[in-house]
Design goal:
This protein is an alpha+beta fold. The chain is 36% helix and 20% strand. It has 4 domains: 150 residues, Topoisomerase I, domain 2, CATH 1.10.460; 124 residues, Topoisomerase I, domain 3; 119 residues, Topoisomerase I, domain 4 (Orthogonal Bundle); 78 residues, no CATH class. A hairpin with a 2-residue loop joins strand 13 and strand 14.
């Protein structure tokens, strides 16, 4: 028996609750967690030796496997290697690598690409794509699929032919292999409510600059998806200079395939691979140049919108519970159609801001994260649990009314928790922790706290029955002393007036007028 109207309404209400509020909290948590990991990362210097070689009119470089913490040791090793003057090939491994072409764009994929290539926000990309759709130049953009059904395959050649009339695409169309189109994008099972993003037979003549960028991204992705795989010959070489090991990697394109469409043979975030002469074990290579490279360990990178969209899309993969992980396998946080609005909501409510292309939390955002980071509301597993429950309701395996009552009870509980640890609405000063001197304090209704758990400095907002204002906290942290606090009560019930003062160890005590300080 199917679900009735009341159950359907409950399911709709449930989905609305977690799509409107439930998804923003774990998204903010992702941004804050990455920001704090980046900020707290201890950068360390290390040194490697780079050798330059030349053979058969080809220049190439090798890098030491050893990483030195001490510059002098690296310099001394460099001198020894330079005196020796040669390096010997100790190992050669050649393998063929095949890179399959990318699939069609879904909305999230298009938003990520547009953010990387043109610095468009997710919302800007969605708006541009929507405009192209309304003008009938592309198919429906709010899709979560990268495939087309079998019955659309026959329409693809006409779409490609039409692109010959577009100046920006004509050269790329000339590179496609007619009669040998790759059918990886055809999959009836993986087409959801809407198929992957395609251009239409209506070729645009006049578009805005932004529309041209997005249209060409979709058109070029179609041409790449229809092309054969890119085949490369990857060669890994190991050398030895004195008793130190060095490595180098080479790449030779055997079949350009889909990468020939844009003539870009490596991804932007990967190191370019050098072409190598023919090398074999035992070859002696002269060292043309040698140098010590100073490097630094790298912290986790701050999220860009492209990186955040990927993290939201793949959030379910980190869940330990297998059933919950399956429930979020193709969902993540939000949907392709809602992720842009989730991010924009965080901007509008002043939880996050842009710093160049990076997304960083505001002071307010960090306060919210500090309040909820250990609560279920910030955990993407909650979305998985709700999604599993909703799927059972749709399959008539669970009661919708019971689920809604559980949601209402949870909403009441989490609201009470958040109010108890509420964040003050007063204008927030930017106060540096007086103990660790590195982190910005979180000012809550009941406490002022350093977010660094290793520091854990804390000051209660109520002292002997008297609430401390933000101005009191600011004076204490910046000047080491509050104004006179009146009306405090001792354990015996007697009222007294005193200053709260802080020593150089960030410890507080009372200071009475015309008296010596006593420990609190």
């Amino acid at each position: 028996m199917g679900i009735n109207a009341s159950q359907a309404l409950s399911i709709s209400a449930g989905r609305g609750v977690y799509s409107l509020g439930r998804v923003q909290t774990p998204t903010l948590a992702l941004i804050c967690k990455r920001y704090l990991e980046n900020k707290d990362f201890a950068v360390k210097k290390y040194f490697q030796i780079q050798l330059e070689h030349r053979k058969e009119f080809t220049d190439f470089k090798s890098l030491s496997k050893t990483k030195w913490d001490d510059r002098k040791l690296a310099d001394d090793t460099l001198k020894s290697i330079q005196r020796n003057g040669t390096a010997t090939v100790t190992a050669v491994e050649t393998k063929t690598a095949t890179e399959q072409p990318p699939l069609l764009f879904d909305l999230t994929g298009l938003q990520k690409e547009a953010n990387k290539r043109a610095s468009y926000t997710a919302e800007e990309t969605l708006n541009i794509a929507q405009s192209l759709y309304e003008k009938k130049f592309i198919t429906y953009p709010c899709t979560g699929s990268k495939y087309i059904p079998e019955d659309m395959w026959s329409e693809i050649p006409a779409l490609v032919r039409n692109l010959e009339a577009r100046a920006s695409c004509k050269k790329a169309v000339g590179k496609v292999k007619w009669g040998r189109f790759n059918k990886r994008i055809v999959n009836d099972v993986k087409v959801t409510d809407h198929h992957g993003l395609l251009i239409t037979e209506k070729i645009p003549s006049e578009l805005t600059a932004h529309e041209n960028v997005i249209y060409d991204m979709i058109a070029y992705r179609l041409l790449e998806a229809l092309s054969p795989a890119c085949t490369k010959e990857i060669t890994d070489i190991e050398l030895q200079a004195l008793h130190y090991d060095f490595t180098l990697k080479g790449c030779k394109i055997l079949e350009a395939g889909w990468r020939g469409i844009k003539e870009k043979f490596t991804d932007e975030d990967s190191e370019p691979l050098q072409e190598l002469p023919e090398l074999k074990v035992g070859d002696e290579l002269k060292i043309k140049e040698a140098s010590v490279l100073e490097k630094k360990t790298k912290p986790p990178v701050l999220y860009t919108e492209a990186g955040l969209l990927s993290a939201m899309e793949n959030a379910g993969k980190e869940i330990d519970n297998e059933d919950e992980r399956k429930a979020l396998k193709d969902i993540g946080i939000g949907t392709p159609a809602t992720r842009a609005s989730i991010i924009e909501t965080l901007f509008k409510r002043d939880y996050i801001q842009r710093e160049k292309k990076s997304l960083i939390p505001t002071h307010k955002g960090l306060q919210v994260y500090g309040a909820v980071k250990d609560k279920k509301i910030a955990d993407v597993a909650m979305t998985a649990e709700w999604e599993m429950a909703l799927q059972k309701i749709e399959n008539n395996e669970a009661d919708a009314g019971a689920f809604q009552r559980e949601m209402e009870a949870y909403a009441t509980s989490i609201t009470r928790e958040l109010l108890d640890t509420g964040i003050v609405n007063e204008k927030q000063p930017e106060l540096t922790c007086p103990k660790c001197k590195s982190r910005q304090l979180l000012v809550w209704n009941k406490v002022v706290k350093c977010p660094d758990e290793a520091c854990n400095w804390l000051q209660f907002r109520t002292v002997c029955g008297v609430p401390l204002s933000v101005a009191d906290i600011e004076n204490l942290v910046t000047k080491g002393k509050t104004n006179l606090i009146k009306g405090m009560k001792s354990n015996s019930g007697n009222k007294f007036n005193a200053y709260i003062v802080m020593n150089d160890k960030a410890e507080t005590s009372f200071e009475f007028e015309n008296r010596k300080p006593n420990r609190k």
